[in-house]
Structures are given as structure tokens and as C-alpha cells.
């Protein structure tokens, strides 16, 4: 019987299951988010990790833009959305986003119809 001195490579299930944005980040792909073209449904704020508190996220308010039409994000970008009155009227536009595209969804004091909660529930990447 021959013996082989070859390295053993072990791939765990955790290594195979990555959030969509993490997989894109590894490959360096930009992400394109699609928002309605006829109205501004939200304002986009870019987020970054807090170096002093790695489990915290800080919203960088200086870099923001309206969520309208196609929006291209860099591979490691994480975003917060501040929903507008127009956006809160009909949250079906959230269904065009991947479940982990948005880190923060701000609906502060905006009325949301019952059917809107189903669209929010599908955003499983929400942290706040």
C-alpha cells in the first residue's frame, strides 16, 4: 500500500454559505440597486464599521444621495435608507432589493400600510 503526503483541505459548510454582498465583495463586483425612476423613495446613507467598537456601525451622513433609478455601490458598501413619504406610501420597491442590501431602514414617524410590512420582513439584512 502506498502512502501519500498530501495536504488535507477541509471546506466547512460555513465557508460555503456567504451573504450575497459578502460573496460579491470577495470577487470585487460592484452592486447595482434598482429604485423607482419616477419618484424619490428614500435617501441613501453610506455606513462603515466603527474601529473602536467593531460590532457597531456608524452612518456616514456626509455621503448621501437620493434613492432614484439605478444606484451603483462599491463592493464593500453598506447602506442605510431614510424612507421618504412617497416611499412609505408603497413599499413594494423594496422587493427589487436583495434581502441583505440594506443595513438600516429608517421609517421614522412615517405611516406604513399593513401590506408594507411584508416587504420590510423580506429585508433580512436589517440591523437597525
Describe the structure.
This protein is an alpha+beta fold. The protein has one domain. Helix content is 20%, strand content 30%. A hairpin with a 7-residue loop joins strand 2 (42-49) and strand 3 (57-67). The radius of gyration is 19 Å and the shape is globular. The N and C termini lie far apart (59 Å). The model is unreliable at 1-26 (pLDDT under 50).
Work out the count of structural domains.
Answer: 1
Oligomerization? single chain
Strand tally, please? 6
The radius of gyration over CA amounts to 19 Å
Structural class: alpha+beta
Listing every helix as H and every strand as E from the N terminus to the C terminus, the arrangement reads HHEEEEEHEH
The main β sheet shows up as: 4 strands, mixed
Mean pLDDT: 76
Topology of helices and strands:
Elements: H1 13-16, H2 20-27, E1 31-34, E2 42-49, E3 57-67, E4 70-73, E5 78-83, H3 85-89, E6 102-106, H4 114-121
Parallel strand pairs: 5-6
Antiparallel strand pairs: 1-4, 2-3, 2-5
Amino acid at each position: 500500500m502506498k502512502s501519500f503526503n498530501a495536504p488535507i483541505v477541509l471546506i466547512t459548510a460555513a465557508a460555503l454559505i456567504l451573504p450575497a454582498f459578502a460573496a460579491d465583495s470577495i470577487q470585487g463586483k460592484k452592486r447595482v440597486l434598482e429604485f423607482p425612476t419616477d419618484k424619490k423613495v428614500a435617501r441613501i446613507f453610506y455606513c462603515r464599521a466603527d474601529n473602536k467598537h467593531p460590532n457597531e456601525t456608524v452612518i456616514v451622513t456626509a455621503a448621501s444621495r437620493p434613492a432614484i433609478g439605478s444606484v451603483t455601490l462599491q463592493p464593500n458598501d453598506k447602506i442605510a435608507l431614510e424612507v421618504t413619504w412617497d416611499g412609505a406610501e408603497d413599499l413594494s420597491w423594496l422587493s427589487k432589493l436583495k434581502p441583505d442590501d440594506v443595513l438600516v431602514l429608517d421609517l421614522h414617524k412615517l405611516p406604513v400600510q399593513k401590506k408594507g410590512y411584508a416587504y420590510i420582513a423580506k429585508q433580512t439584512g436589517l440591523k437597525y
